[in-house]
Design a protein that fits this description.
Keywords: Membrane, Transmembrane, Transmembrane helix. This protein is an all-alpha fold and 214 residues long. It has 8 helices and 2 strands, in the order H-H-E-E-H-H-H-H-H-H. It has a domain of 143 residues: Ferritin (Up-down Bundle), CATH 1.20.1260. The N and C termini lie far apart (80 Å).
């Protein structure tokens, strides 16, 4: 009787082991969704965020270059004309860098601005004089603030050497353009997004127990 019971238990254990092995072989391993979107390159892993950076910088140039051209004929203030020309020239350089980096890394780039950018261009194309000056300064300043956070975030975490170099150069262009736009005196800072709230400060241990009771 005991031998029969031991035999049955042995067979049951064998079935459990076989079932476990079958599950391991059939079920796919758990995959990190972020890692699954990475591409290996000679300069390191290329992430979805890296690719998105190149796309966003490309699209920024595709609307800011024609906007700079508009500034030469539609702006009233001389400073807006100057700023428009400088930003347009910078974006021509940055666009070349973007296309070169994208080609090295095999990233496909768009050939037109996104829907929001196209609507901003249409708005500027319909304006002239002080209305153009005001909207040019504020539309571009708001857009640069958004792309600044993208470039900074990618630079902080990218694993790719080419993207690291590109982000360093790109962030310098963005900061320069924000300062140029603000130099027109037309940027309404009250309309810009609120800075992120700071993290709560950690509690301080009562000044080391009030200096150990003095």
């Amino acid at each position: 009787m005991h031998r029969l019971l031991r035999g049955e238990l042995f067979m049951l254990g064998g079935f459990v082991v076989a079932a476990a092995v079958t599950i391991v072989l059939v079920m796919p391993p758990s995959i990190d969704p972020a890692a699954a979107s990475w591409t290996q390159t000679s300069s390191g892993p290329l992430t979805a965020a890296d690719r998105d950076l190149l796309i966003k910088v490309r699209q920024a140039g595709l609307w800011e270059m024609p906007a700079g051209e508009y500034a030469q004929t539609r702006a009233e203030a001389q400073r807006v004309k100057e700023v428009g020309k400088l930003i347009m020239q910078d974006h021509m350089k940055l666009d070349l860098m973007t296309r070169q980096t994208a080609k090295k890394l095999g990233v496909a780039l768009p050939d037109e601005p996104n829907a929001d950018q196209q609507s901003w261009l249409a708005q500027l194309a319909a304006e002239s004089g002080p209305a153009f000056d005001r909207d040019y300064a504020n539309l571009l300043r708001a857009a640069h603030g958004k792309v600044f956070t993208v470039v900074a975030g990618v630079r902080a975490g990218t694993r790719n050497a080419e993207i690291r170099k590109f982000a360093e150069q790109g962030i310098n262009f963005v900061m320069r353009h924000m300062a140029l736009l603000e130099s027109t005196g037309l940027v309404d800072h009250n309309q810009l997004p609120e800075p992120p709230s700071p993290s709560p400060a950690p509690p301080v241990a009562m000044a080391v127990e009030t200096r150990r009771h003095i």
